[in-house]
Every structure is written in structure tokens, then in C-alpha cells.
TrEMBL record, chain A:
Main localization (coarse): membrane
Classification via InterPro entries: ABC_transp_permease, LivHM_N, LivM-like
Protein name: High-affinity branched-chain amino acid ABC transporter permease LivM
Membrane topology: Multi-pass membrane protein
Span of domain High-affinity branched-chain amino acid transport system permease LivHM N-terminal: 15-115
Gene responsible for this protein: livM
TrEMBL record, chain B:
Lineage of the organism: Bacteria, Pseudomonadati, Pseudomonadota, Alphaproteobacteria, Hyphomicrobiales
Name of the protein in its database record: ABC transporter ATP-binding protein
Signal peptide residue numbers: none
Organism expressing this protein natively: Rhizobium oryzicola
The family this protein is said to belong to: Belongs to the ABC transporter superfamily.
Superkingdom: Bacteria
ABC transporter domain mapped to chain residues: 12-244
Alphabetized UniProt keyword annotations: Amino-acid transport, ATP-binding, Nucleotide-binding, Transport
Listed SMART domains: AAA (SM00382)
Family matches, as CDD domains: ABC_TM1139_LivF_branched
Molecular function terms, GO-annotated: ATP binding
């Protein structure tokens, strides 16, 4: 059987049909109760239900036809392309990337810098709020958190499920210290980072001997301990009520964003009062913090400590036999990762104006870790893309009105937000098991960087 | 010629070492000496304690009794990484290369002690010694074949410019031709550079042929020692480790 007549094979069509019907039946079974029947309560508080056969039929058809198309047409096509590629011997690392791919990072940075003014000119000052705040700042906070966690998980290979604890330490450091001592954001930002790093070391010590699952459990517990302390130490943290009225950040003390202040930014420039200016300022602050994180991470990767992290991820015993102090290496990974979490935390407090233990639940740790894994552990670009997809995606899913066209006007897309989100994550892990950017940029070169062509990378026969 | 520099101080002196795993005594008072410029091998059956001795020299696990003296310093209770910094390089059992890092990065990790001062120079040397690694320099360690990984493991250890090279089972799971290549490389290093090598091997015939001196270990104790040739000729050794084997 040659691959030319592969898609037209009668056996394949039969198989696709069979799988399609099977998927339809499966979907019918799964969605019969969830979608096919709608339950409600009437005015007497009695349970009433009515069927939605039309909607159920659409679900089943989407599943069945989708499976049929994938098995019958998409999969053979992909296989054929893979086969052709393998035959042609196309190297995996090609040297001639397009202009866009070559300058991707520069283009992305310029786009980010131009983002607020462009959005403002399109949607007006007030209309830009949603885009700058929900889509801009929100995503960038997660980019920063994920890049910070990447140092611990992606580079040093220490699975940390309690990363949100350092985020909390940073946020509360800023909220409490600015409240008690009236210190400004710019003074407290480094202090919050140092305090978080300190907590990173405190976490690091007891878990030095742990790896993998055991480490994950202890870090998970650590995250919960911090949260419970925040809830129960009411004298200092006000418990679940949280701390409100956290001071805003200022432009290095020159202009303030407090409405009453004489040096208010909008007043000084004779602009109409709006909270949008503060958000745009915060956008640039978090962008700068992200750039700092990326710069430090990239530099560290090329330094002995960064190489030691990566080697530690691969093999701890080998590291020790090469004279690497694994204790120091682990502690610095925890401390530096935690420090970035602390920066992000104090930024979060300044942006939100309110901190409470609610914001630092385990789900946050899980989301940040998911971003790191989805992006491809260790790859900054991949992680940024994953953060945009995860955080921006969930925001976008709030606005899925178009689905009403398929499923009818009664369909409430918001309810399916998390379901679609989960499906998307599974899909990514199935098709890109190493994450969006699974390849690692090597850091050692003899004289020049060179991409190795496929003919060199055949499996050895020693 | 049992001991070429009997008058000199040994580079490595293991005396009366006892090592325990929990309550189980794996080494029951081992004495071994390695002198500068020698190839010394340690042969023995599975579970005799060969690898444990190797690891005890590196401080993981540490010896409960007895002492390990290297180059005049007692290293018995030193942490592993500090022992490594005294230029005892190890190619551990199972190779333990860094699978997701490239060959060149693996070598870079080995050269960390000198902050990469001699990196380019030493890499060239390794590529001359193991030309195979040059072809594969940009490949991930994990994609190499077993023999290439062993070469990489030895090369990585050599990048540290060691005074003493510890090799744990370099022939494990390799085709005879590759074993020959690797043993040839060890011989060249010893003859040309005066590298001191302490070798643990199951492949007794190849090891004894290569070594100046050798020790035989049984149940955590050294039961015999002598020059490689002597032990090769010894009927007891022949019966226990050589006959019935491939050679």
C-alpha cells in the first residue's frame, strides 16, 4: 500500500464512519443528562425539567462528524506530511527562518510598548480600560509569575506547587509595610522581593533532600500554611476581610494617581480625570518587571549557576560528582524564583488596592504551573504564549456570543467556559506534549552558533 | 613489579574503610592504595561492594569507620562536591550524563571547576581522544548510543583536569568493540598524560590486561592483590572471574 492512495482506502472510510458513529453514541451518553435535559425550579420551589433534544442533537453531531473528519481526512493527511518530511530528510532545525520569526521578540516587544496608546486611540480613554487592565496587566502578571516559577520548575526541575505563597508574601509585604510605615511602592518593591526570597530559602531548607512527588507535596503544604496564617493572624492581616485601601504606586514620587493629591497626574497635565492613566502606567511597570525577569533569567542561564540549575534538573548525583554544591544551587533557585513572585505580588497589591487570602488559593499555583508546563518548561517565549492563551483565553471565553449561532439563542456560553478551557489544555498536551516551545536553546558553543542539520543527528550505532 | 613507586606517598589511600547501608555492612574494612601514574583496577562479583567503595571514596555514602586520604588530605567526612573540587573526577556507574543537554554542554559542566578557563583547549583534546563526540557535539546527550554516552561520561570527567579518575564499570552493556576503544583511550591517557586511574570492572580480563595493579574484592573485603599480570595468571582468579567467560 503506497501512501498515495492511502486516504481513498475503503477500509479507512469504514473505520472513520465506525469511529464517528462511536463518538456520536459516546457524546449522546455523556451529554444526555447534562445537555439534553434542563432542570429548573418553578415559583413553588419545585423541580421542573424539560428536554432540549435539538441542542443535544447538535452536540452529538459535532462529536460524530468531527471524529469522522479527523479519522478519515485529517489524520491521514498529517501522517502523509510527516512521512514525506521524513523521506525528504528535512532537518528539524532549519537555518533560514522567516523575517517575522527571526525578529519575533523585537516585534513582540514593540507591539507591547505600543499597545496602550493604540488601544486608547481606538476605544477612547475610558474604553481602553478593559483592554489594558483585563487583557494587558492581568496577562503580564501571569507572565511574570510563570517566568519566576520557571526558574524553579523549568530550569532547576524542582516541582513547586506552592508558588502562590511567595506571591502572597510580596502582596502582603507591600500592603502592610505601606500601611504601617507609609513607604512608597518603589521602596517596597525590592523589599517585598527580598522578603519573598527569604521565604523561598526558608522553604528551601527542609526540602533539600526531597525530589519529585515528595517535594511537590511539601511545597503544596507550604502554600497552604502561608494562606492559613494570613487568614488566622487577624491582628496583623485582618483575616479574610483582607487589607483594603492599599496605597497606589506613583511615578517615582513625581506624579501621583491619588485623586485628591495636588500632584495628581491627570491634573498636572490638564487631562480629564480617569483611572485609565493609572492602569496604563501600571501596564508599563509590569512590562518593565517582566523584561527584568526575562533579562535576569536569560543572563543566569549563561552563567555557572544557571548551568548548574539545568544540570541539577537532569541528574543530581552527577552534579555533585562534578563539584557542584547542590545545596546552594537549590536554595538560589528557590530564592530567585520566590523573589520574582514577590515582585509580582507587591505589584498586584498596588494594582488591586486590596489584598485578601482569597487571591492566593491553590488554584493560582496550579494555573501558574500549568502555564509553565504548557509553554514548555524552560522556554520564556513558550511560557509567554501559554500565559496569553491561558489567561487571555479565559477572559475571551467570557465573550463567546458566536457560539449562540451554532447552539441556538438559549445557549449560555459562559457556563461552558471552564469546560472548553479544559478541553483546550488536553488538546495542547496531546499534540504538543513538550509544550508550545519544547526545544531548548543550547548555551555552549565552540566558535559560532550553528544549527545542526538532520543528517548529523541520526541515532548512533555504537 | 608490584608497585612502581613504593617509596612515594600514595595519591589515594583507603584504610580500614567500613561502609553501611542502614545496618547492612557493605564494606568490611577495605585497604587500597593508588599511586601517581598508575592504573589500578578492582574486580569482583556482583554485590561484592566494588561500586560502594567507589562511592565511599566520593563521600556518598560516607565511611563509618576507617579513613580515605587523598593527596595528603583526609577526605573521609567531606561532602561530595568538595571532594570533587580536590580533582577526583568520577565517571559514575550508569554514566549519568545530562540527557537533555548537548554534548558540548555536558563537557562544559565538567569544566566548571576552572570556570571554563581551559574549555576550548580541553574540548579539542577530548575530540581527538573520542572523535565520535566531535561529530555529535550539538546533539542532546540522551540521543547518543550507549558507547557514545560512556565516552561522554569519561570525557566530562576528564574536563575537570583530574588528578585521579574513577571509572565505575565503563564496559557495562557495551559491544566488545566499543569496550576496546574505551580501554584503549584510557591507556593512551595514562601513558601520554600520566593520568592516574582507579577502575572498577566486571570485565575482569580486559581490566587486568590494562592495569598495572589490581585488587580482588569478595563480600566487602579485599582478598587478593597484585600486578595485573600476576592476577591474570592466578588459578583462583582464573577460576572465579575469567574462565567460563567469553575469553
Amino acid at each position: 500500500m503506497t501512501e498515495q492512495n492511502f486516504p481513498a482506502t475503503p477500509g479507512l472510510m469504514a473505520k472513520a464512519l465506525k469511529e464517528g458513529i462511536f463518538a456520536g453514541v459516546l457524546a449522546l451518553g455523556m451529554f444526555l443528562l447534562y445537555v439534553g435535559i434542563k432542570t429548573d425550579q418553578n415559583i413553588n420551589n419545585e423541580l421542573i425539567w424539560y428536554p432540549r433534544w435539538g441542542l443535544l442533537a447538535i452536540f452529538v453531531l459535532v462529536a460524530g462528524i468531527g471524529r469522522f473528519l479527523i479519522v478519515g481526512f485529517v489524520a491521514p493527511h498529517i501522517n502523509q506530511r510527516r512521512l514525506a518530511k521524513a523521506k525528504a530528510g528535512i532537518p528539524e532545525v532549519s537555518e533560514d527562518k522567516g523575517f517575522f520569526r527571526k525578529h519575533f521578540l523585537k516585534i513582540a516587544l514593540v507591539a507591547l510598548v505600543l499597545y496602550p496608546p493604540v488601544v486608547m486611540s481606538i476605544y477612547g480613554t475610558q474604553g481602553s480600560l478593559k483592554f489594558v487592565d483585563n487583557f494587558g496587566i492581568q496577562i503580564l502578571i501571569y507572565v511574570m509569575l510563570a517566568w519566576g516559577l520557571n526558574v524553579v520548575v523549568g530550569l532547576a526541575g524542582l516541582l513547586d506547587l506552592g508558588y502562590v505563597a511567595f506571591y502572597a508574601v510580596g502582596a502582603y509585604s507591600y500592603a502592610l509595610l505601606s500601611d504601617l510605615f507609609g513607604l512608597s511602592f518603589w521602596v517596597l518593591l525590592p523589599i517585598a522581593g527580598i522578603l519573598a526570597a527569604f521565604w523561598g530559602i526558608i522553604l528551601g531548607f527542609p526540602v533539600l533532600r526531597l525530589r519529585g512527588d515528595y517535594l511537590a507535596i511539601v511545597t503544596l503544604a507550604f502554600g497552604e500554611i502561608i494562606r492559613l496564617v494570613l487568614i488566622n493572624w487577624t491582628d496583623v492581616t485582618h483575616g479574610t476581610a483582607g487589607i483594603s485601601g492599599v496605597a497606589k504606586a506613583s511615578i517615582f514620587g513625581i506624579w501621583s494617581f491619588d485623586v485628591g493629591a495636588s500632584n495628581n497626574f491627570a491634573k498636572s497635565f490638564g487631562l480629564p480625570m480617569s483611572s485609565a492613566y493609572y492602569k496604563i502606567f501600571l501596564f508599563y511597570v509590569i512590562l518593565a518587571l517582566c523584561m527584568l525577569t526575562a533579562y535576569v533569567t536569560l543572563r543566569l542561564r549563561r552563567m555557572p549557576i544557571g548551568r548548574a540549575w539545568e544540570a541539577l534538573r537532569e541528574d543530581e548525583i552527577a552534579c555533585r560528582s562534578l563539584g557542584i554544591n547542590t545545596v546552594m544551587t537549590k536554595l538560589t533557585a528557590f530564592a530567585i524564583g520566590a523573589m520574582f513572585g514577590g515582585f509580582a505580588g507587591s505589584f498586584f497589591a498596588a494594582r488591586q488596592g486590596f489584598v485578601s487570602p482569597e487571591s492566593f488559593v491553590f488554584l493560582e499555583s496550579a494555573v501558574i504551573l500549568a502555564i509553565v508546563v504548557l509553554g514548555g518548561m524552560g522556554s520564556l517565549t513558550g511560557i509567554a504564549i501559554a500565559a496569553i492563551a491561558m489567561v487571555g483565553g479565559t477572559e475571551l471565553l467570557r465573550e463567546m456570543e458566536f457560539l449562540k449561532l451554532i447552539f441556538g439563542p438559549d445557549f449560555t456560553p459562559e457556563l461552558y467556559r471552564m469546560l472548553l478551557f479544559g478541553l483546550a489544555m488536553i488538546a495542547v498536551m496531546l499534540f504538543k506534549p513538550r509544550g508550545f516551545v519544547g526545544s531548548r536553546e543550547p548555551t555552549a558553543f565552540l566558535k559560532e552558533r550553528k544549527a545542526v542539520s538532520g543528517s548529523f543527528t541520526k541515532e548512533g550505532h555504537g | 613489579m608490584a608497585n612502581p613507586n613504593a617509596a612515594a606517598q600514595p595519591l589515594l589511600k583507603v584504610s580500614g574503610v567500613e561502609t553501611f547501608y542502614g545496618n547492612i555492612r557493605a564494606l568490611a574494612g577495605v585497604d587500597i592504595e593508588v599511586y601517581n601514574g598508575e592504573i589500578v583496577s578492582l574486580i569482583g562479583a556482583n554485590g561484592a561492594g566494588k561500586s560502594t567503595l567507589m562511592m565511599t571514596i566520593c563521600g556518598s555514602p560516607q565511611a563509618r569507620n576507617g579513613s580515605v586520604v587523598f593527596d595528603g588530605t583526609d577526605i573521609t567526612k567531606m561532602p561530595t562536591h568538595l571532594i570533587a573540587r580536590r580533582r577526583i573526577a568520577q565517571s559514575p556507574e550508569g554514566r549519568r550524563i545530562f540527557p537533555r543537554m548537548t554534548v558540548l554542554e555536558n563537557l562544559q559542566m565538567g569544566a566548571g571547576l576552572d570556570k571554563l578557563k581551559y574549555f576550548n583547549e580541553d574540548v579539542e583534546k577530548m575530540f581527538t581522544l573520542f572523535p565520535r563526540l566531535k561529530e555529535r557535539q550539538a546533539q542532546r546527550g540522551g540521543t547518543l548510543s550507549g558507547g557514545e554516552q560512556q565516552m561522554l561520561s569519561i570525557a566530562r570527567a576528564l574536563m575537570a583536569r583530574p588528578k585521579l579518575l574513577l571509572l565505575d564499570e565503563p564496559s557495562l552493556g557495551l559491544a566488545p568493540l566499543i569496550v576496546k576503544q574505551i580501554f584503549e583511550a584510557i591507556k593512551v591517557l595514562n601513558e601520554k598524560e600520566g593520568l592516574t586511574v582507579f577502575l572498577v570492572e566486571q570485565n575482569a580480563f580486559a581490566a587486568l590486561k590494562l592495569s598495572h595493579r589490581a585488587y580482588v574484592m569478595v563480600n566487602g573485603k579485599v582478598t587478593m592483590s597484585g600486578s595485573g599480570k600476576e592476577l591474570l595468571a592466578n588459578p583462583e582468579v582464573r577460576a572465579a572471574y575469567l574462565e567460563g567467560g567469553r575469553h
